[in-house]
Amino acid sequence: MTLDRAAGLTETARALAAGEVTSRALVELTLARIEATQGSLNAFRIVRAEAALAEADAADRELAAGTRKPLLGVPVAVKDDMDVAGEPTAFGCCGEFPPVAEDGEAVRRLRAAGAVIVGKTNTCEFGQWPFTEGPAFGATRNPWSTEHTPGGSSGGSAAAVAAGLVPAALGSDGAGSVRIPAAWTHLIGIKPQRGRVSTWPRGESFQGITVNGTLARTVADAALLLDAASGNHPQDPHRPPAVDASAALGRDPGRLRIALSLKPPFTAVPARLRPEVRTRIVELAERLAALGHTVEEADPPYGQIGLTFVPRATAGIAERVGEAPFPALLDRRTRDAARLGRLLGGAPLRAARRAEAVLHRRIGGFFTSYDVVLAPTTAAPPPRIGALLELSGFATDRAMIAACPYAWPWNVLGWPGVNVPAGFTADGLPVGAQLLGPADSEPLLIQVAAQLEAELRWFAKWPSPPVTARSAAV
């Protein structure tokens, strides 16, 4: 048989288990697609060609022996903030980094599920911004329009999946860094409950606001990768009760009370929802109402939640800068954020961490009236390449908040959120919507996303093929 770029994670795993294709053939195809697009999309920082082929051969031997694992032989990618044994973890920074000795826990679990890690995808410096550009690797481009960013900071993973280079990828989300690029590349992006997917060798990443999540073209594929990557290292401080994301797909969520929240949460600078994005979100709300859900406009009681985000985010950057082997090569905005983080790293940080429990109670009370929040993922379509790259720190913050004011509160709360495609602007640029829930609500959010997917079939729409004819199928 042939497997083209439309074959997702679930279909690829099935074809491998059925003996319809070999892992080596799939990995060779994947490597050819990456090579063909690296000059145009630039999705990967590291391509593990030789190692991935060796792992594919080992997977084929296991398959031939009758071994079955959820992702045995399937090629996937991970973001370059995750440790892969034998590879450096530069996290978007300039300089030569030494290879790490061990896989991070999320990567270890993907390997235990049988996945072949074909490479590490590009991310901006320490994952700070909603664009994936920098002097360390250049600009990663959006498959839907190569003049625009795929978003950030998991922009390389999003570009790789959206272009069909890999069927799914891991990213990380500290202020929307899975959901924003998913929105801007027409993907499903799951930001799970804090601790669902381990960030070990860090028990917490960026003072607990950053979690690892999944990007895929379908809800089933994003859920399958989430199940494969989920679990904890023995020393993880956050260990939520296990959920079966894939099993949720077959269940009807029933009639839900859905809050349509269009007002941006607290921001220090103005943020306005663009009319072309608002229209797409309202259309999605109308679709949910047509499915039988009760949908009404209502905003969670965020209050001054932004005051709790800044100390955690900047203290996290200060920690990373303190470990950086080449601090002089870091972006000036990174160094400035680290200085602020050092100032806020004492009493303000402790107060911000304590405030989380208060926020859980207050915003948790909102979920006695509503089951799910539907909100824009971003306020604007993806900006052009270079639009934010050379700005000052303050100007970058203003532009970032104006474009992306909606995602970060759920990082403070540590609760799940799922981006779903919401359509396109008149210029053909993708935009997305978030389904947001309280603690451990991934199954419910996945059920709602699957309902929408069955109606809208967003996975059937693709960007123009960025791959060469010779690598189109096996």
Automatic annotation (TrEMBL):
Organism classification: Bacteria, Bacillati, Actinomycetota, Actinomycetes, Kitasatosporales
Regions crossing the membrane: none
Keyword Hydrolase: yes
Location of the Amidase domain: 26-445
Keywords from the named record: Hydrolase
The EC number(s) this enzyme carries: 3.5.1.4
PROSITE patterns xrefs: AMIDASES
PANTHER family (alphabetical): GLUTAMYL-TRNA(GLN) AMIDOTRANSFERASE SUBUNIT A, MITOCHONDRIAL, TRANSAMIDASE
The family this protein is said to belong to: Belongs to the amidase family.
UniProt name for this protein: Amidase
Pfam family name, one: Amidase
SUPFAM superfamilies xrefs: Amidase signature (AS) enzymes (SSF75304)
Enzyme type, top EC level: hydrolase
GO MF annotation terms: amidase activity
Database matches in Gene3D superfamilies: Amidase signature (AS) domain (3.90.1300.10)
